[in-house]
Amino acid sequence: MPFRTRSAYAFLAPYLLVFATFWVWPIINSFLISFQNTRINPWKYSFQANWGRLFYDPAFYNALYNTLIILVIQVPVMIALATVMAVMLNSPLLKARPLFRFAFFAPVVVGEVAYAAVFRLMFSLDFGIINKLISAVGLSPVSWFDNANAAMALIILAVTWRWAGYNAIIILAGLQSIPDDVYEAATLDRVSKVQQFFHITLPLLKPIILFCVVLSVIGTMQLFTEPFLITNRGGPGGGTETLGLLLYRQGFTSLNFGYASAIAYTMAALAVTISLLNLWVGRDPK
């Protein structure tokens, strides 16, 4: 091996060692743990204890159902909203565009605990501003934290509020990469702005939107903060418990590390499968 190559690997060695110790080995080890019954001492190999349990565990199916509901409803709504926001932020008619871009991106940098506490206060049954507004128009207040459907709607609303601006900034970058000549030519051909959006902007933004969809799918499959902090650990009665929250409960509350590892790899497999499906559906026809 040439001296320069050996020198390069010598400089990389500390990073590679840390990478292997704290990233590669934990992944391999957790996969091995998923095949062991960790409820007994010493741990023993048992496929049925963890992977077999996934097929008949009602808690797992409940968490999977809740996660998929959020995925199917929240992700399309958020991506559509982010696209509209990006188009508005890219408009030359908008004044103080940098200020609005910062305002839309700001929810991402807000502390998770802080914004969860604000949402709990805003949607409180007794003194929340949302229920006061609902009462002001003559409707009955909603018990957001005691009704499973209302709590699920609250989770979807919170996640959309937090991440729509982030995706809008990514889509905005894609919009700014589209040459102005394309729109000028369409305008000369008397193509309306609406037609330009659907026949020029959206097709050219397709790779960027697909990228945002894949990121959102991965994030939704790992969703933990909102159901844990806003709806009090997936309440009411598990109505908002997600796979990420179930993993936490099994691993750090019940100390069932084997089953938690099996859930983690199931989450990863689902995220990869759904992401690949999105990429396949959104591929360019040949």
Task: Describe this entry's structure for a reader.
Helices cover 73% and strands 1% of the residues. It has 286 residues and is mainly α. Strands 1-2 form a two-stranded antiparallel sheet. Helix 3 packs antiparallel against helix 9. The two termini are 44 Å apart. The relative contact order is 0.13. The model has no long low-confidence stretch (mean pLDDT 91).
Which features would summarize this protein structure in a list?
mainly alpha, two-stranded antiparallel ribbon, 73% helix, Lactose/L-arabinose transport system permease protein, MetI-like
Write a brief structural summary:
The chain crosses the membrane at residues 12-35, 63-87, 99-123, 150-175, 196-218, 257-281. With 286 residues, this protein is mainly alpha-helical.
Main β-sheet description: 2 strands, antiparallel
Helix content: over 70%
Strand content: under 5%
Strand order of the largest sheet: 1-2
Overall average pLDDT: 91
The string of secondary-structure elements, in order, is: HEEHHHHHHHHHHH
Low-confidence stretches: none
Structural class: mainly alpha
Cα distance spanning the termini:
44 Å
The outline comes out as globular
**Oligomerization status of the protein chains:** single chain
DSSP helical segment count: 12
Number of strands: 2
Radius of gyration: 24 Å
Helices and strands in order:
Elements: H1 3-33, E1 36-37, E2 44-45, H2 47-52, H3 58-89, H4 97-109, H5 112-122, H6 129-136, H7 148-176, H8 180-188, H9 193-221, H10 225-229, H11 243-253, H12 257-281
Helix pairs in contact: 3-7, 3-9, 3-11, 4-7, 7-9, 9-12, 11-12
